[in-house]
Amino acid sequence: MTRTADTLLEEIQGPTPGQMLRKRVFGHQGLLFGVAVLGLLLLVAIFAPLLAPHDPYAQDLLARMQPPVFLGGSWEHPLGTDHLGRDYLSRLIYGARISLLIGGFAALISGLIGTAMGVAAGYFGGRVDMAVTFLINVRLAMPVVLVALAIVAVFGGSLQVVILVLGFLLWDRFAVVMRSSTLQVRSREYVTAAQAIGCSTSRVILSEIMPNIVNNLIVVVTLEMAHAILLEAALSFLGLGVQPPTPSWGLMVSEGKQMMLFEPWLVAIPGITLFVLVLAINLLGDGLRDVTAPENRS
Amino acid sequence: MLNFILKRLGLAVLVALTVSAISFSLLFMAGDPAAALAGEQATDVDIEAIRRLYGFDRPMIVQYWEWLSRALQGDFGESYYFRLPVADLIMERLSITMTLGVCGISFALLTAVPLGVVAAIRPNSLIDRFALFLSVMGQAMPSFWFGLMMIVVFSIQLNWLPPSGTKTWVHFIMPTIVLGYYAMPAIMRLTRAGMLDVLGSDYIRTARAKGAGEGRVLFKHALRNAIIPVVSLAAVQMGFMLGGSIVVESIFALHGAGYLAWESIGRNDLPTVQALILVFSMFYIVFTFLSDVLNAWLDPRIRVA
């Protein structure tokens, strides 16, 4: 066997950073599961009109509460029908849109607020830091579910209101994590160097600090997205979130609750999909943290 | 130490004041409170009379000051719905929520700490994996769904436990598990990480080297040090739990403060909602204050920072 220059180079250098990253990613079962399931659910949400066998809003009062296929139902309604005769599978498929929309936008809004506050606190320190820390304390002291319920009750339950309320309530973890991450990189040489050659503050923050803390940001985005999805479901379940007839999974559990005594699957099915979605997002977040954490790079 | 306590107390009071201002402003976010009180058929004259009667025509800052000074004396005004003092209503319901909170946190600690310790002693063992599995499940399961599923299995199918009510301690079993399960993952992970950290330290090696038994090493030397951060986490979780008990109380029809909050929101009973937000926030503020002081007392390094 002859050694070409390429293989020789490889032996000397060892694996490239890209190869090491690929190895870490593909060796992480949780991360792969999270990506696969979340990707699948995203596709389901995007192509909902093509996938849903029926109109999720169409009522058929003659075919109410038909059991799903595995409980002796027919393939006409694979997951049965609800108390108004609406196809459960179709509502479930459209429900993925609601959960992902709310999770995504709530995480986006709270991420913008929290990151701005956290980075400002970490970079400027002093009074800015004191003010931000104080605001984080105030936010943590307020009971999230109760405040969200009260505000939704005042403004009325709709998709936009729920997204805004959750977006303005869930920024605390972004602020905490971004603040400590910024503190860690603020005094590095490359930041000092950028300041020394006269870069503007916004340039230092955007092109020197942000790229170095974006790993942590992505992990918090996934965690808060999961958090927002669970909260939306809880609000809708309590009747003060997304309003009927929108097919929200939390709302479906709440509607099924009336019939729980005889038809427990009405409650079980939307709960399982919620669980799977949140589990996938959490595993993705945990996986990203493991893969990007420097201490795990051997 | 005194310096630390005073500083921390000042922060707690400032946070409490800010929260009170926010929960007070909720009344005005909801639109004209006089019109809401007067009802649908009220004429403009009626609304004006009610506005005078309740003092809604005065500047907001004056009203806030009056509300706050009364609240500090334990007077939160009158419920729009019950026409009873809000403070009495809350006091009546709070015992159930407190019982639930104490049971929930005890359940979480009693299951999470032993699991965390065993997981740390035998990393990557079957128990460690089981503990990780439990915590991953706990973080992903919607609490209202977990509660309903428990009712389906243990009340409807097996007929072991009552689905709702508060008559006996048996009624508290399922709510305790549902509420406590949500504090478990964090407590367990912290116990495990703390134990792993401590077990690798020099003084544990010294204790083993001088011939201390394994039980003594684990419980007297290791756990006592690893448990400190867990205590403060438990205090914070307790604060969160009381605020989060609203979901659990509504599922199991426990008529506690959380249930009252849910009902009052539905009835537009704003004085009650305001007072409850303030009360739940106060619990959180007091618990975190106590846990910070406790931590500073146990760990002198915190006092200086």
Query: Architecture of chain A, CATH level 2?
Result: Orthogonal Bundle
Q: Looking at the chains present, what oligomeric state does this protein adopt?
A: heterodimer
Q: What characteristic shape of chain B results from the CA principal axes?
A: flat
H and E order of chain A: HHHHHHHHHHHHH
Q: How confident is the prediction overall: mean pLDDT of chain A?
A: 86
Number of domains of chain B: 2
The count of strands of chain A amounts to: 0
Radius of gyration of chain A: 24 Å
- Strand-and-helix sequence of chain B, N→C? HHHHHHHHHHHHHH
In whole angstroms, the N-to-C terminal distance of chain B is 12 Å
Write up this protein.
The complex is a heterodimer of chains A (298) and B (305). Chain A has 298 residues and is mainly α. Chain A has one domain (64-297): Orthogonal Bundle (MetI-like fold). Helices cover 72% and strands 0% of the residues of chain A. Chain A has 13 helices and no strands. The radius of gyration of chain A is 24 Å and the shape is flat. The relative contact order of chain A is 0.14. In chain B, helix 5 packs antiparallel against helix 6 (126-140) and helix 11 (214-251) packs antiparallel against helix 13. Chain B is 78% helix and 0% strand. The longest helix of chain B has 38 residues, at 214-251. Chain B is an all-alpha fold. Chains A and B meet through helix 6, helix 7, helix 11, helix 12 and helix 13 of A and helix 1, helix 6, helix 7, helix 11 and helix 12 of B.
List the helices and strands and how they pair.
The complex is a heterodimer of chains A (298) and B (305).
Chain A: H1 5-13, H2 17-26, H3 29-46, H4 48-51, H5 88-124, H6 126-141, H7 144-155, H8 159-169, H9 172-186, H10 189-196, H11 201-237, H12 249-257, H13 265-292
Helix pairs in contact in A: 3-5, 3-13, 5-6, 5-8, 5-9, 5-11, 7-8, 9-11, 10-11, 11-12, 11-13, 12-13
Chain B: H1 2-29, H2 33-38, H3 44-54, H4 60-72, H5 86-121, H6 126-140, H7 143-157, H8 173-181, H9 184-199, H10 202-209, H11 214-251, H12 257-266, H13 270-298, H14 300-304
